[in-house]
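Our preliminary data section would be incomplete without showing what the modeling component actually yields. Below, a chain of 729 amino acids is followed by its predicted structure, encoded as tokens that our downstream tools consume directly.
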Amino acid sequence: MSGTVLETGAQVRFAKRTWTVVMLEGPCVKLIDADNSVATVLANYLAADPDFEVVGAPRRHVPPFGLLEELPEQVRECAYAWERHVREVETGYPVPGQDHVPRAEFDPARRTMAEREEAKAAELTAAGQPASAVTVRRMRARYREHGLWGLVDGRAARPRSPVGRADERVVAAIEQALQAQKERSTGTLSRLRRTVGWILEDTHGAGAVKVPPASTFNRLVHALADRQGLLGTAAQRRRHSSRPAPPFTPTVALRPGELVMLDSTPLDVMVVLADGVVGKAELTIALDVATRSICATVLRPMGTGSVDAAILLAQMVTPMRMRPGWEEALAMSRSVIPYQRLVSLDVRLEGAAARPVIMPETVVVDQGRVFISASFTAACNSLGVSVQPAPPANGPAKGNVERMFLTIGDRFSQYVAGYTGSNVTQRGSDVEGEACWTLPQVQDLLDEWLIADWQHRQHASLRHPLAPKVALSPNEMWAALVGVTGHVPVLLGAEDYIELMPVKRLGINDYGIRFDYRTYDHKVLNPHRGHKSTAGDGMWEIHHNPYDPNQIWVRLPDGWQEVPWIHRERVSLPFTDFTWRHIRGIVERRGDRDEHEQQLAQALDRLLRRAGNGEGTRRERTVAARAGAAASLAGPAPHQQEPHGLLTAPTLSYGLVGAFTPTGLDEPDGEEVPAGEEFEDGWDEDDDDLLGPPGDAGDAPAGHEPPPGPAAGPRPSRIYDALLEAAQW
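Predicted structure:
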């Protein structure tokens, strides 16, 4: 009982009540209180209660020997000496277990306790350590209550303040000044010292409290601010404030797809977009934590959209085909992956490159609007994937993918022509002139590097489950785990790819569907014009491809139907949502809404043609080049005619969509017309006083008849063609 004797008749404190011990029977203690309430308690449970104590015999604790090691050696030796003195006074032996005869003045058989205390005080005084019998008696009591720690000089054990004996008013003023400059631009300690002086004057009056000398002031500032993120440059203070609070728990995944991290970052390489225009690209990757495999990559001109993130999911479950010119060593059949067993389950793997095909269970994303958009969340839900947003400004929550970006910069980007370095201080003098690779070419180089280098490179953090000392590569880790977890092919059909695209909810009016100042119409809408859908809001579900606005897809009662833009034939070159918004910003309305839409289409066509010929402003050429970069990622249009309503598109070179979007594309600006409304906000038939250049509407009528089908046959939408994709496997 921690040095305390528990016996029958003793009074104890337990459960905030006083009890009397009436029986000790084996491990049990029977108690009775003043109200004659009886309790039987296990002795171990009784002693472990934090309030337990034997009345009249305070509970003793094990001395904190570890704290003794933090004290100066002189203080420890003094405590050990007092321990020997106290023991000799009480037992006659300075050290327990001695077999010699006690000294006469400390022999308990000859001297009383008071006489022994007087003798010890006289001995200490004669040895140059003045002490009285009262001091000896007090040290005996402290030793009996606290053990050796009770004999330590309390002044040495007292915690020391980091600011010493500095004036508390000065300390408070320094802390106030440090907090006030936390968000300010970088300053000097001299500015901080003047600020502290002004605070002291305002608080206590002029001259009441003096600011310490510069050297003393600087020591106080460092004592208060070091490691608190209150000193340093503005960038250093921002980094410290954005760091999450520790401890950081390592991210662990035990099976492929259990945890997949998605993130985007600018690629440190200048690429040729189109027509000689050079720009930066943005890289989005999917990293499987369990195997460290790069399951998918999307390379786009700056501005990843939600459709890119959604298609990234589709790319993960689709095998990557071997490209022309790749070495046969990059094929899955030549790798450590159990190819023969897997191809018997998934025939699409025949002739595939050595990149794992992993279906994610949970994806970890940051707080970017692309990854937390309704479109991306809906795409994940349609595939049965759970979305787990990382806490804001929490790098360790997705540290694996952040480290992967550094590896791509170190092992890939710096070897590519047009490398810019990670910041402007590392940039060369003519990076734009060095750029020679187009966006598809850089994507091709990146994919080849990932398969040839990264997927076959051993990592210290990847260990075989049955041989922990063996470091594995991502492909080896996948081969080891897939035999346990298995592989289930995930085949996406045409409708699945439509589901992955961004969503809007709009009405179907007499003139069709007006979306972002474009009108879409087709005869399949005739039975539903002016009618509400069965949804609660009465709106119809519309999916659109921001990289090819020539058509949208409407979910009708009989399934998905493709509805073309009524002016798609007026624009002969590919364009994107971003290109259309650029035109909307420079063309003012003249005439009614239909005439204005024709003017926008014709102005867009003129811009694309003019920029394609090297004319126009730099801004116009850049806009057109980004649209051209989208077209460069699409394969040739198929010649076969598909039944209306199926998603018809070429198979992309990389299984991606492509083009530019400056911000998230989930909530595009423009018109959204609810069912039954004749005009949208900002489209008033009486607004004839708007100034702007006249459009080239020609003799086109203001109204239009719904076309019987997509003009000039179904145009390719730069998304997968699921039928063609399946035929090629």
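The chain has a mean pLDDT of 77. Residues 260-485 form a domain with the Nucleotidyltransferase; domain 5 fold (CATH 3.30.420.10). Preliminary results of this kind motivate Aim 1 of the renewal.
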